[in-house]
Specification:
This protein is of the alpha/beta class. Among the domains are: about 150 residues, PAS domain (Beta-Lactamase, 2-Layer Sandwich), CATH 3.30.450; about 160 residues, Histidine kinase-like ATPase, C-terminal domain (Heat Shock Protein 90, 2-Layer Sandwich); about 150 residues, Response regulator (Rossmann fold, 3-Layer(aba) Sandwich); about 100 residues, Four Helix Bundle (Hemerythrin (Met), subunit A) (Up-down Bundle). It has a 5-stranded antiparallel β-sheet with strand order 3-2-6-5-4. Strands 9-12-13-15-14 form a 5-stranded mixed β-sheet, covered by helices on one side. A 5-stranded parallel β-sheet has the order 18-17-19-20-21, with helices on both faces. The chain is flat. The chain starts with about 25 loop residues before the first strand and ends in a 6-residue tail after the last strand.
Length: about 850
């Protein structure tokens, strides 16, 4: 057969074109039986990769196998069902015959005859077990086949049968004169059925193998007329694919569908060969365009990545700055609120004549207002200074001033603060003292106040030393502030001069302050022509070195250095006033005996009737038996805590106001109490004025209607002065009188009732601290944490607020398992315990 040709047409889907030098000059016809290539489609499934011959053989044999399998299966199922039903009928007939024969022996109770009848079942190998039951259902006689182990056979109702894979069980009634006098039970296994199935399967296997062999031989002879032309076409296709030679043609051997396929294959090759040149040109042009566009996209992607990285960096910086400023604002809010509360609170005391017209008390209130105002002014000045520094508008006024006078002023202001903590504040000159230097005296004083104040704040024991030195040649004044405080880790020292960033936020929380002092000081030192540096070792103390320009010293007199100076002062104390309460029944729930007694006395002296409970469980029982106008609930108690008790009371329908009393004052504690069902929240140590105000508010609200209560809440919210006074009394930390003799309770000890409470607390404190030391020695940290928590609230309640902070630190360090901090806090509590005294200082 000669090759057929057709007009070439352009095809966009043709493969890469070849140049004219790659193509033979004339079409070439090859014998397809000489092409020997292997299949390149290894990624397909095994059956799909098989040859047509294999697929045809598999199709023929698989079809025959499926047909035979279905036929044999159908016959097997039908045969097995027939045998099973026949087996049931046969065993049922045997049971009926046996029942008929056993009627007489059962009537005469002939057990030997019954066993003989049952033994006749031995002629049936499949019967494993047979028995005769009397009319009461008891076994009268039984038979067990030899070689079969005894087992529990399935029970069958009378005149019924059960058939399963293990065998067949039947039971027939034994009748005599129309009455049932017993029954016969037979059980036969399926061994005969299984033997029949094995024989049947063996026969089927032989027939199936022979049928498959015959079918495979016939399919092998018939498939050649189909597989040979297809193989020739596949070989030609693989040759074209491998050699890229589109002159190859096939020779169809018939006019059937395979012959038509061969002709179409030749025509397709003709079209592909004609379109190669056009396709090659299009490919070349497309490659040029792709290269150009790829270069453009690469430049654009690089630009976008740079912009994205810059945006992410700016976002991270903004988020970090926002977080830092949020923390700063929260800290600053607390710092401002504390002196403001003191000012408003003591102002209200003066306006309400709480001083009892006592001039000494009035002066004490005024001094407290003055000191709080000064503290508030310092905070505001810090904020303003930082704002000016951030805006680049900080101005300094250079004028002659005495550096010795500036240092003395700082020592005079801070000596009381140092004495209160039991610290020595020392000042010395390492060189001669210039009579004056040219600098901003106010800014220099502010610098030293920040540095010395920080040193006192972060020093628990030891001393704070101010060492001044003049370098006459470089015209530089150097002031070193040396302390024996907590120190600063090396990796944190770079952060302490950054605004809004603290070296350790926990230090700020423990010691107070805004954290702006050092940031402002560092910038002020630069404005004064010098710098500020720090050298510190954690746990050993710090040395802050301040240098400022002195201006020209040519005509300045140098004086001899004065001796070191250090003074100790005292701090006055104050007490809360009283409020009269309406007649009311109040339930006080508190596990601490001293706290319970003190709060009860406070309330009873104000006119209330108080019932006490030691834990939440007792409180729930008390509210179920009697009604109360108000409930004061400690939240940390054994047996059942306050949170659980409040929830249970609310679930039982109790609407009485519940005021939470807790030593926890962290963020989220108030929400936790309110979520548990409490109406209000007070922190320990308990301040009498705060407690009585809160009780009075809720007792008054409880006597009104719900609409009046809502109106009262709106009025309270609209009165910021009263709100601030209440918050001041709640958040203020009462100062404790520290003298050479010891520590005095802030309660009015001239009152015998309060004196008794304090005496009981002192006895309790001695044993309590001893228990804490024993718990620490035995490494019972959970017990130590519980003891510290109890002391944290009890100490302030008894008027010894000085115990609250060390007890809280001890509890925290115990939870964090930091032995060094635990030992320090225990030692501090032991020292405070030794210093506590009960004798009042003034009437």
């Amino acid at each position: 057969m000669t090759d057929s040709t057709s007009n070439a047409s352009t095809s966009s889907s043709a493969p890469r074109a070849f140049s004219s030098s790659e193509m033979p000059s004339e079409p070439m016809v090859i014998a397809t039986d000489t092409i020997d290539t292997e299949s390149q489609t290894s990624k397909r499934r095994k059956l799909s990769d098989a040859s047509i011959r294999t697929k045809l053989l598999f199709l023929a044999t698989a079809s025959v196998a499926v047909a035979l399998l279905m036929a044999f299966s159908g016959m097997a199922i039908n045969d097995i069902q027939f045998i099973r039903s026949s087996k049931v009928e046969q065993l049922d007939s045997q049971a009926k015959m046996l029942a008929f024969n056993c009627a007489g022996v059962l009537t005469f109770q002939d057990e030997t005859g019954a066993k003989e009848l049952l033994r006749s079942m031995a002629m049936y190998p499949a019967v494993e077990y047979a028995c005769v039951y009397d009319e009461k259902g008891k076994v009268f006689a039984e038979y067990q086949a030899e070689g079969v182990a005894a087992k529990q056979y399935r029970q069958v109702d009378v005149n019924q049968y059960v058939l399963d894979d293990s065998g067949v069980a039947v039971r027939q009634s034994i009748m005599d004169a129309g009455e049932r006098i017993g029954s016969v039970y037979l059980f036969a296994n399926m061994s005969d059925l299984h033997a029949h199935v094995k024989r049947y399967l063996s026969l089927c296997a032989v027939l199936m193998i022979g049928s498959l062999a015959s079918a495979g031989m016939f399919a092998y002879l018939m498939q050649r007329s189909i597989s040979t032309p297809i193989k020739e076409l596949a070989d030609a296709t693989n040759t074209v694919k491998q050699k890229r030679d589109f002159t190859i043609r096939v020779q169809p051997a018939s006019l059937d569908e395979l012959g038509q396929l061969g002709g179409a294959f030749n025509a397709m090759l003709d079209e592909i060969q004609a379109s190669k040149a056009a396709l090659q040109a299009a490919n070349d042009e497309l490659e040029n365009r792709v290269e150009l566009r790829t270069a453009e996209l690469t430049d654009e992607i690089n630009q976008r990545q740079s912009i994205q990285e810059a945006l992410e960096t700016a976002r991270d910086e903004a988020e970090a700055a926002n977080r830092a400023k949020s923390e700063f604002l929260a800290n600053m809010s607390h710092e401002i609120r504390t002196p403001l509360n003191g000012i408003l609170g003591f102002t209200e005391l003066l306006t309400s004549n709480s001083d009892g017209n006592d001039e000494a008390t009035r002066q004490e209130y005024l001094q407290t207002i003055s000191s709080s105002g000064s503290h508030l002014l310092e905070l505001i000045n810090d904020i303003l200074d930082l704002s000016k520094i951030e805006a680049g508008q900080l101005d300094v006024e250079l004028s002659p001033c005495s550096p010795h006078d500036v240092i003395n002023q700082v020592v005079s202001v801070l000596r009381a603060k140092a004495q209160k903590k039991g610290l020595k504040l020392q000042c010395a000159w390492s060189s001669r003292v210039p009579e004056s230097i040219v600098t901003d005296g106010g800014r220099l004083r502010q610098l030293l106040m920040n540095l010395v104040g920080n040193a006192i704040k972060f020093t628990k024991e030891g001393c704070v030393t101010i060492d001044a030195e003049l370098d006459h040649f470089s015209e530089m004044l150097t002031v070193r502030v040396v302390d024996t405080g907590i120190g600063i880790p090396l990796e944190k020292q770079a952060d302490i001069f950054s605004p809004f960033v603290q070296a350790d936020n926990s230090v700020t929380r423990r010691y107070g302050g805004t954290g702006l002092g050092l940031a402002i000081s560092e910038r002020l030192s630069s404005a004064l022509g010098g710098d500020l540096r720090v050298e510190s070792v954690a746990g050993q103390g710090s040395v802050f070195t301040l240098k400022v320009k002195t201006g020209s010293l040519k005509s300045v007199a140098l004086l001899d250095a004065p001796p070191a100076d250090a003074l100790i002062g005292t701090v006055e104390e104050y007490s809360a006033d009283e409020i009269d309460l309406p007649a009311a029944r109040i339930l006080l729930v508190e596990d601490g005996e001293i706290n319970r007694k003190l709060v009860r006395i406070m309330l009873e002296e104000a006119g209330a009737t108080v019932v006490t409970a030691e834990n939440g469980w007792a409180a729930v029982n008390a509210t179920s038996k009697a009604s109360y106008d108000l409930i004061l609930m400690d939240m940390q108690m054994p047996v059942m805590d306050g949170y659980t008790a409040a929830k249970k009371m609310r679930e039982e329908g109790l609407t009485t106001p519940i005021v939470a009393l807790t030593a926890h004052a962290m963020k989220g504690d108030e929400e936790k109490c309110l979520d548990a069902g409490c109406t209000a929240y007070l922190t320990k140590p308990i301040q009498q004025v705060v407690l009585l105000r809160e009780v009075l508010k809720h007792l008054t609200m409880g006597a009104e209607t719900q609409e009046s209560a809502d109106a009262g809440q709106s009025l309270s919210a609209s009165n910021p002065v009263e709100s601030l006074v209440d918050r001041a009394a709640e958040e203020s930390d009462a100062e404790v009188l520290t003298t050479d003799v010891g520590l005095k309770s802030t309660l009015p000890l001239e009152n015998p009732v309060y004196r008794e409470i304090v005496e009981e607390f002192v006895d309790f404190l001695q044993q309590h601290v001893a228990d804490m030391q024993s718990a620490y020695a035995d490494q019972q940290y959970d017990t130590l944490a519980q003891l510290a928590h109890a002391l944290k609230g009890a100490g302030g309640t008894a008027g010894f607020d000085v115990l609250t902070e060390p007890a809280a630190k001890l509890q925290q360090s115990t939870k964090e398992l930091t032995p060094e901090e635990v030992e320090v806090n225990l030692a501090e509590l032991s020292d405070l315990t030794r210093r506590i005294r009960q004798t009042p200082q003034r009437a």
